[in-house]
Amino acid sequence: MAKLLKKPLKLACVQLSTGADKAANLARARSKVLEATSKGANLVVLPECFNSPYGTKYFPKYAETLQPSPPTESQSPTFHALSALAKESKAYLIGGSIPEYLAESDKHYNTSLVFGPDGSLLATHRKVHLFDIDIPGKIRFQESEILSPGNKVTLVDLPEYGKIAVAICYDIRFPELAMVAARQGAFLLVYPGAFNLTTGELHWKLQARARAMDNQVY
């Protein structure tokens, strides 16, 4: 699959601890993205729900309106912050994910936004596979209580480098999505995530290695 990557790409993955203050979360993200690009990163990936606390009770409170696109700054301060940051850093930026509210259908989504070095929106991915788990005595979490699933494989063309695929966290557990993306020419599968400690340590690296090996991609 090396032929799918046109030239070397330096990728940075940002880890963040998010709090209740969205503006502070965005400021921390900006600082880390600029740090990464100052060290030569061409593509920077932020975490899942990087602009807000993660949880069903938080999704409606922190959700932003993204449609019609582009939204106004009051509808989605995160959209505009990411667009400006990509342009400032002159890098491709995968904005982890944020809670999205779609007014016309009264639905919430877990959504990733991808921006180009000129600040333009290149792609939007809504998390397809919602995280529902119930392990007695350890963890119970049901994204489906609030969120609706997306319905597409998301490929992004980076003209200098090739195609990448973007999905979110729990999407990594489903090999079919990765297989479709690889068959459509992606050299890299990107899964911004916020795995829990119950299953995360056991499965995160295992799943990433499996998807990469199955499809002979990064």
UniProtKB/TrEMBL annotation:
One of its GO terms (molecular function) is omega-amidase activity. It comes from the Eukaryota. Keywords: Hydrolase. Coiled coil: none annotated. Residues 9-218 form the CN hydrolase domain. Signal peptide: none annotated. InterPro entries: C-N_Hydrolase, C-N_Hydrolase_sf, Nit1/2_C-N_Hydrolase, UPF0012_CS. Gene3D superfamilies: Carbon-nitrogen hydrolase. The keyword Hydrolase applies. GO terms for biological process: asparagine metabolic process; glutamine metabolic process; oxaloacetate metabolic process. One of its GO terms (cellular component) is mitochondrion. This is Carbon-nitrogen hydrolase. It comes from Aureobasidium pullulans.
